[in-house]
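Journal club prep, shared notes

We agreed each person brings one worked example of a sequence with its structure written out as tokens. Mine is GTPase HflX. I'm keeping it raw so we can talk through how to read the token line rather than staring at a rendered picture. Sequence first:
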Amino acid sequence: MINSLLKTAIVVQVYCPTLFPYDIDEMKGLAKTAGYNIISIIPQNLDHINPKFFLGKGKVELINTGIDNFFFNHHHNQYVEELLESEEFDENGNPFEEYENKEDNIEFDFPETIHKRKDITIIFNNRLGNMHRLNLTKIWDLKVIDRDELVLEIFERHAQTHESKLQIELARLNLETNIIKKELGQHLEEKQGRDFKGKGRKGWEPKMQAYRGRKKKIRDELKVISKRRNLRRKGRSKFFNVGLIGYTNAGKSTILNQLAKSRFETAQQEFTTITPVSRKVVFPSFKENGKWDGQEVIITDSVGFIMDMSPALINAFLSTLEEFQFSDLLLLIVDISEPKFEAILDKIRTTFTIMAQILVMEIPRVLVLNKIDELSEEFLQKRVEKIREIYPEIPNVSISALDKTGFEKISEIIIAFKQQKKYH
Ligand SMILES: Nc1nc2c(ncn2[C@@H]2O[C@H](COP(=O)(O)OP(=O)(O)OP(=O)(O)O)[C@@H](O)[C@H]2O)c(=O)[nH]1
Ligand SMILES: [Mg+2]
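Then the structure, token by token:
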């Protein structure tokens, strides 16, 4: 049964040698987390992406017809006809030709709650260019977003602090400014031809100015918040700082909760945590003089990563992510129970890529293989061996944050690193 509170989405994915092959199962999870009910998934294989529509023209029209059939109307206007008819060129200026399979009709199973075209969202499991998004929005006359925007929508839903709300607004404004710039260029060329470029700018100027003003205000406010955070961090610098880092949904917050006996939100969905939190944890340790002693450590949990995270999002969250630069040890949390082993390796690679971007590759790190309660002993051993082969220089520890298996090993490792650093 379709949940009427959910928004209706059609997911489209283009597979092409030049495109990042995002996982379709991950898209299903992201769409669900953002509140969408997917009614159809439409893949298309292309040798080259269509410079104008991203998709092949035939597919664009088929999707349109499929939606039109449901609404019993045809919304084509003169401009759309022209856009579809006009000749296409690839990035080298050669006429663009594509193979089209006109045979495959597309039929959708729309829920009864859909009354307007605008109630449908087309989500691309790709990264669209602004021109593609503009053209497709005009042709289909409905909301078109890509994977980056979907992730941004999830962030918007989950942001709770003033800082994270500002960071997301900034990412959204950056995205919209780029779209408006493209739209403006297109508008001027359409209406006035290249010779008159600049004349129609006046109408857009107030909007752009408002965007610029708001962006500056947000940046200034974020700077103030960041300064305040620096002060708080200075207070923590006398302690040993451990950062929990890794792919979204790996179990970072669950681990922090178990260690700190806290109750931060955890959930079987992406980007539950948006705002970093730090907690002091006291690990019992055995001193040389034979006495038990409490070792204080600060543990920080933060926003999780995702494959090929958009630069707009990384930039907006840079100040949050840069917090990790002040860690003395990073625990790279990995969900070792994923069905596909290749996906686990991809997620570890993603974590390293973002770590390089936020300049934390010099910090000692440990791979924490979480969710072992989901795997048989034999299966786990095989996976651990493979990971050791691939990353022989990084220590690893297998745990289950759910039932607290392996937590004594984590404590030992943290204390060993802490003593190496001679923190007191
Ligand atoms: N089976 C099992 N599930 C776990 C384990 N650790 C965490 N989970 C579950 O995995 C899901 C994600 O856990 P979180 O702690 O929210 O993950 P996170 O890394 O903080 O995720 P984000 O904040 O979204 O980046 C939740 O449903 C947890 O209950 C584990 O050891 N075993
Ligand atoms: Mg979390």
